[in-house]
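Researcher: Structure prediction, please.
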Amino acid sequence: MAIQNNPTPSPKFSPTPAPQKNRTPLLAGIIAVLLLALIGLGIGYANRGNDNAQLSTDLVEMEQFKATAEKQYYESLAELEEMRGSNEELNALIDQQKEDLRTQKEKISSLTRDSRNLVAARRELKELRTQTDGYLVQLEDMRLANAELTENNQRLSSERDLLSSDLQVSRQQNESLNTERAVLVSEREELTSTNEELNRKVGVASVLKTNNITIVGQKARSNGRFADRNNASHVDRLYVCFNSLDNAVAKTGNETFQLRIINPAGETIQIDAAGSGIFTMADTGEQVPYTKAVSFAFDGAAASHCTDWSVESQQYSEGAYTAQLYNKGFFVGEGMVTLK
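Model: Predicted structure follows.
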């Protein structure tokens, strides 16, 4: 076995250490920096705590505001609803106002999503209150106006009913008066008719009857007297005589007969210049021509009368001549003669 000889190590020489620097100022600086950092952190945490505390306060205020706004909104709706009635126009206005408040409520709700808008939200809530108050005043004015209008309508309705009642009474009175007037008119007409009938009867009764009516043709003689003739060519005049009978109903005084002489052609001999005219039949109203009138003083007793129809140049033709007598519009007799 070989023996290994380990060489003896050579001794090492360490350099002389350099003199160390004084680190105290450095440490002091570091400590100062650390202290400042700690102070900054503390202040930051303190500020953050203050911010958190403020944020918490704002959130609480916002929630309280939301509750207040919600309460005020529904109170406003309730106040508007209290004004609702039977008037359709008023109710339509309330519905419109409620819709306006809902729009304002939505505007407030949009602001409450951020606590930083609390001031603006309060302002809008105040506006909602102002709106509500204005709406209530408007509704109250309208309600009072409607009440006044209703009162006026009721008053006018009462006046109308009163006038209608008065009118009805007046109509009834008028109808009663008209009925009474109609009765009076009817009675008057009946009385008039009765009087007319009585007058007619009296008139008929007062008519003077006649008899012995004669008519002859006559020719004038040289001595001025007249002789009866039947020959038409020898006749100068027609001579009519008759008797009027007594009548106790007829008034005394002047009486008149209408003499109507009808020639063979059926025509009334009529010459206006010789006293002819027209009279009216009492029973028919017919207009009848007459030849001449025969008047005399009537004293109630019977009497005889004669009259002639003598007209210069009067020509008479052959045939029958009829003498008709009328008194007070009634036919009272006739006589006839035939000329050859």
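Model: The CA atoms of residues 38 and 326 lie 163 Å apart.
Researcher: Thanks, that helps.
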